[in-house]
Amino acid sequence: MCYYLYILTKKGEFMNIGSVIKYYRLKNNLTQSQLADGICSISHLSKIESNTYTPHEETYEALLLKMGVQLKKELEHQKRLEQQLGRFIDCALHYDLDNLHKIYEELLDEDDYLQSTDLVNQYELYKFRYYVLDLQMDKASAQQKLLEKLKASFTAPELWMSRFFQALYFTTLGQQKEAMDLMYQLDQGLQSIPQKLEGEFYYQKARILIVHDRLELSAYFAERAVRAYEMHHNYIRLLHAQLLLAINYTRRNLSTQAASLYEVVKRNAYLTHQHELYQSVLYNYAELLKNQKQGNQAFELFSELKDVVQPGSYIHKAVIINLLELEGISEEETLQLIEQLRMPGTPKDEEYFNIYSDYYGKREFSQQELLNYKEDKMFPFFKKYGYIKDTKHLSEELAAHYKEQQDWQKAYYYQTQFLESDGE
């Protein structure tokens, strides 16, 4: 376990003096013997540098002076770094990605020095958050291992943050069960949550719950996130929380409330140049309109989105599936869209979209062949790989079909699958 000892300067400011002395000694290529000569013993210096002994004022001032380091400037330097780290944290909390990248690069230039200060835990924690947010998962994995080594020196809020950021890491990797388990553990330590992270915790928990189709509970946390973001004037994240709430309303068939929120978030995302958020609003709002049989409006939003997203990306292919389900598309356009579904992607998602491309290609064949394909290929794949929304929709459709055919055994089976996928 590593304990840091601090000295209180004449101005009443704290400094992790031992680590600072070691930093400058190494920077000046001095041995402990060279630095200690004429000031203190080597063993004394070793204890100072390892933060197991707090030196007298005359001792640390002499050591710093020998290396040309002025205490006043050192305190000012640390104050600037503390402010810079504060801005880095605020950018992460407020989703200010442009400035987040810029400040990260600036902090990297001070990396060695930061290791010698009492800012190191916050710095390393938010580097982890940055890597996850920026989808640098290899660096995030390495950072997670580093945080395990630092864990013994964490305060209670820092320990809570490390677990929270780890949950976000699992979510980004698609390991939803691990993320959910950590989130439940974090509920037990809410007294340690840093106030600024309150809204983010509620928002991320609502996101994980909606993935598991726990809609009522997800709405509860999304509403708490909205209130927390409003209280902290975190307007970009407020838009994210409102979008999540609108998606929740859509899933619960609260169409009027969902449409109202989509309009608000769509307008504000556009005005604030939140391009990814704007695209997410278009997609989810278009799906709502499609389900409400407002095909023309849905077609307009899906078409707008298709023109701006990366061809072959997940969202591009998801848009194509929705366009294929709308009426009024020509046979030639249909064939072109089906072909685009087969563009290369990640192995699992590629198979997912290939299944849909085959399905739409089979619509010209007999209804029985289409039904067999749904049962034998689509339903098992969706259920196996956790595509909850697709599983729910298809099981509901198959249950309705077999009720009409009075095949009660199969109708019961798919009805139970539909209820299992419903989450609550």
TrEMBL record:
Top-level taxon in the UniProt lineage: Bacteria
Pfam families: HTH_3 (PF01381)
HTH cro/C1-type domain ranges (all copies): 21-75
InterPro entries: Cro/C1-type_HTH, HTH-type_regulator_Rgg, Lambda_DNA-bd_dom_sf, TPR-like_helical_dom_sf
Molecular-function GO terms, alphabetical: DNA binding
Protein's name according to its UniProt entry: XRE family transcriptional regulator
Organism: Planococcus maitriensis
